[in-house]
Amino acid sequence: MHPSLQHLYRQLEEQRASVLAMAQALPGEALHRAPAPGKWSLMQILAHLVTAEKMSLAYLQKKILGIDDAADTGWKEDLRIGLLKISQRLPLKFKAPGRVVESTPAYTSIDQLRSDWNNVRAQLADTLERFPENRLKRKVYKHPFAGMLNITQMLIFFREHITHHQPQIRRVLN
Predict the structure, then answer these.
(1) Among 44, 50, 71, 87, which is least packed by CB within 10 angstroms?
(2) Domains of the chain by start residue, with CATH
(3) Closest CA to 161 of 36, 8, 7
(4) Does pTM top 0.90 for this prediction?
(5) What sign does the CA torsion over 68, 73, 74, 76 have?
């Protein structure tokens, strides 16, 4: 695995471990309790994160098949990922893409969710391991708002996506 991808993957794994540790400390019923009407429970937030990563990974794996035909990212994508990072750090609310919402399962237990997330991350690690190092700049990931990005930018988005939801997770925990 390319060192830059490995570094970002380690950051993602640290974030995931931290979030799951917080969830594991709660009794089962608290995981499913929404803090207010119309707000997501902790289990729904985590399910959203897992589903977003799972769907992104499926798209990435499809795009890798034609990676030689994909264009390289440039300054426009660098600008987009910069703006995306800023947007994820601001206390703004975003509507989750409909396809992600429709595909998000209702997990019954934290163990079930953890197992799915473990599988997604194992597949991601395998994909990163096999990713051609001379193709790191290729447009292989489509973000719903930022458009086509490269694999490094995809991992940055994954990290920022979790960071974006951390205040929401803390509110639910309190």
Answers:
(1) 71
(2) 3-173 (1.20.120.450)
(3) 8
(4) yes
(5) positive
Amino acid at 25: A
Mean pLDDT of 61-83: 96
- For residue 27, count other CB atoms closer than 10 A to its CB: 7
Torsion of the alpha carbons at 86, 89, 90 and 93, rounded to the nearest 10: 110
Which band of pLDDT confidence, cut at 50, 70 and 90, is reported for residue 153?
very high
Residue 142 — φ and ψ, nearest 5°?
Answer: -110, 110
- Closest by CA to 85, choosing from 149, 135, 23, 133, is 149
User: What's the confidence (pLDDT) of residue 115?
Assistant: 96
Handedness of CA 116, 17, 150, 85 (dihedral sign): positive
Q: Which amino acid is at 77?
A: E
pLDDT in tens, 84-97: 999 998 887 888 88
| Distance (Å, whole) CA 157 – CA 96 | 14
